Amino acid sequence: MGKKVACVLTNLFEDVEFTSPKEALTKAGHEVITIGFKAGETVKGKKGEAEVTIDKSIDDVKTEAFDALLIPGGYSPDQLRKDDRFLEFVKGFADSKPIFSICHGPQLMINAEIVKGKKMTAVKQVGVDLKNAGAEFIDKEVVKDDSGIISSRTPDDLPAFNEAIVDALG
């Protein structure tokens, strides 16, 4: 039976870092539910290639309803990390459910204060932030931490990232 994957998203996400993992997860029989500031709102990717209608407002979701969390990169994580509701939601997955993060996605996890002691990767400039937050930064296409965090760097790494996240859900 398919799993329910929460995906936190707002404007200026990295288009393919949402569309590609979503396609891989859906093809594997899982359901991806987008969570943003307002249900029914349309958010646009930074390249203008993807438009997504938000399924649920952050006010209407609980971690318990989901099996995993997907955090695409782009400028979306930076906008979400200033909102305590998203930080609390992300914290609810820490050490108990898989978190899939690519590119700038770890910015949200850094602000949620859940990266200390974790093995992770990200786009190079976020690697410094991860180190400063106490994570072990490893510069490779996919890094799997024992806590369930699976992280990746850039769109070039999507094939390996998608394979890893689908495998993680069984």
Automatic annotation (TrEMBL):
Pfam families: DJ-1_PfpI. Residues 3-167 form the DJ-1/PfpI domain. The keyword Hydrolase applies. One of its GO terms (biological process) is proteolysis. GO terms for molecular function: peptidase activity. InterPro entries: C56_PfpI-like, Class_I_gatase-like, DJ-1/PfpI. Keywords: Hydrolase, Protease. Belongs to the peptidase C56 family. This is Protease I. It comes from Pisciglobus halotolerans.
